[in-house]
Amino acid sequence: MKIDPIRFEVVRSALVQVTEEMAAALRKSAYSTNIKTRMDFSCAFFDRAVRPIAQSFAQPVHLGSFVELLPRAVRTYGPENMAPGDMFVTNDPYGGGSHLNDVTVFAPVYYPEQTQSPTRPRPPRGAPQLIGYVAALAHHVDVGGGAPASIGPFQEVFQEGIIIPPVKLVDRGEVFDDVFRLILAQIRSKRITTGDFRAQIAANTAGIRRLQELVDRTGLDEFHSYVDALIDYTKRRTRAEISRLPKGTYEAEGFLDNDGFTDRVVKLKVRITIDRDGVLFDLTGCDPQRRAPVNSTYAMTFSACAYALRALMDRDLPVNHGFYQFVRLNAPRGTVVNAVHPGAVVGGWETQIRVNDLMFKALSQALPEAVPAGCKAMMAQAGFGVIDRVTGEYHCNYEALAGGYGGRARKDGPDAVQGHGQNTENAPVEETEGAYPVMITRLELIDDSDGAGRFRGGLGLRRDYHFPRDPATFTILSDRDRAGPWGLFGGTAGRKAFYVLNPDREARQLSSKCVVQLKAGDTVSFQTPGGGGYGPPGDRDPALVLRDVRDRKVSVARARDIYRVAVLPGASGVDAGATARLRARGRSSNEGGEE
After folding, report:
1. Which ranges in 219-281 belong to alpha helices (H)?
2. pTM here?
3. Which of 22, 129, 217, 574 is deepest in the core (most CB within 10 A)?
């Protein structure tokens, strides 16, 4: 079949819009702040061969999970056992998933016998034909397990919550009540979870409707032909993009501060080889998996690889099966980057995003102007549970906090953002306080938390949770309280993270991975790290340092001692003579250095 280029673009854009409309339906229908406001979800369409074709871009970390999860789930349940109107649910981390909170609802899409359309008044005859599959993945605020929000320093996956293999949730358009009640029985936040599941069903319903309408316009054979053409087009584009990358092998090493049960660091090692066949991410040398929550599944780690490669390519390159063919991963089984059953995986995202950061550090050897210095590079997960004394409802909340992004070759790192594949938004104070029995007493950028450099790292974020009248269980699943994000090319490390119980009275430092029982009146201060600096601090434009001082991001003392800039009283300007003398002394002492 001859491919018309204009019609090709129409179909290509229409497929992406299908997933974006699914995302809009999910967000507008959801109950939890984590989904409806923070956008901790993703939607996708797969063709009849279960190849990824189009994805919404709410959460890039879900890229690999979809690619691994859907084909395995469909094969496990069996396409022959699926009918129009059916939907299925799974969160199995060892069936291609991530951690248990990430629950996927998926559905086959058929071109039904009775489809009516103004453009196709005579519907096709015969049995419904398979178009493909739609899927909506969302992070649920609780899936049971050993702590509210289902995050914590667990040692086995069984402690983390309910494990759902691919099972039918909707039977020919009706929710399969027995299965739904069984799932909800394991979960604390039943009202919120019920709403979020129904939002995922609504998202898939919207996707099914739009795909059927698209096939109405194209016809089924033409639709499949254009899907194949899209994959071929993406494959050609991806090969061309890879051909422009510098060939060679690049390495970097790093670590997590601890595993949640011991003080031993978790060693991570990345080796990236770029050749004409694609990009090989070799993670040989990472530590064996731990009886601790820091294990990443294969799908999680694959997401890091896919994101790192995609970030180096043209912005308009489609992401589908044609792209994923070039992402090659060697992650030895039984390690923290490819855990085996029954290893705990709830904190695997902490490992995954640190590996992602190391990939950019490795690539800085070949592409120094294309990658940032060290970023927050942790999910920075916070969760709590409170039982309402009046209604008896069990409230669970989950969020992942922002932090500093690394400085770049020509720009500062943004302040308080979700870096790399993590793309969630911050939860508004008003919404959090309105929905849960908690007060956010401080939400602010942390001044002087930047990694200094020619271009500084972004500032970290402080968010204080105060529980004025009810006891609560609070969980921290994070990292970076031993060392902050590294600098590049003479830039310094960002300020490390701090986790503090009752910071304004008898303050006590908390671990980056812990569950704390709080009394009424207690406060937890969650302080994320700043990003690493890029280039020597002494090379920073004094005008930029002055701007940061005026914005209260950098103190006068830090401007003088680290950036070697003398700021006049009241931040009225820069003392040029004093600055020149400070920088001359700094050069003679060879300040700075990569950390």
Report:
1. 220-243
2. 0.94
3. 22
